[in-house]
Amino acid sequence: MIGGATVGVAEHGNSVELVTVAADGALIDRRRVDLTHDLPTHPYHHEGAWAVGRYLDSPWARPIALPEAIALIERVHAAAAEGAEACLAALPASVGVIAIRECPELPPTVEGRLHDNRAQTQADSVMYRMALANAATARGWRVSWYDRDRVRAEAAASLDGGDLDAVLRAMGREAGPPWQARHKLAATAALAARRS
Predict the structure, then answer these.
(1) For the chain, which domains are there?
(2) CA separation, residue 86 to residues 6, 21, 34, 133 (Å)
(3) pLDDT in tens, 66-97
């Protein structure tokens, strides 16, 4: 088991739930952070898709040129990087590990991601996760990548026979409402990362 605190991340669009637990599994902090402000939250899936001709029959679609969409995506990437640095700097000084959901492999360029339908639908989420991972690495933290299908079992194993659901309920009572599925996922990831 590692020393120091671990923060688990559950992302939804440009928003992330961050749950920080101590080495002993106690809840330290819970917060929601928007990584970007006043910019589109899904530039690959919306503006980028429109630029390559997808979803143009949607009522919210608007024409956009490919260079304009790429420039917008690059601005969102930069804003996400700044937001990630700021939100991690605000966490407790004892944090040394961050648990982030695994990222699928995507084409290496923005344009390549836009022309690949699968990649285009996943690229926004990956952008935010990678912004956090890069900011954490720059802080000297270890990044622990978790698989959403295996993280519960890994968190339960980190409790050495303890009841994961009971631990999550206790955390929820301590944190206060809201304590929803995304908060539980972030807490579960933080607990699992303590052992990796």
Answers:
(1) 5-193 (3.30.420)
(2) 17, 19, 11, 13
(3) 999 999 999 999 999 999 999 999 999 999 99
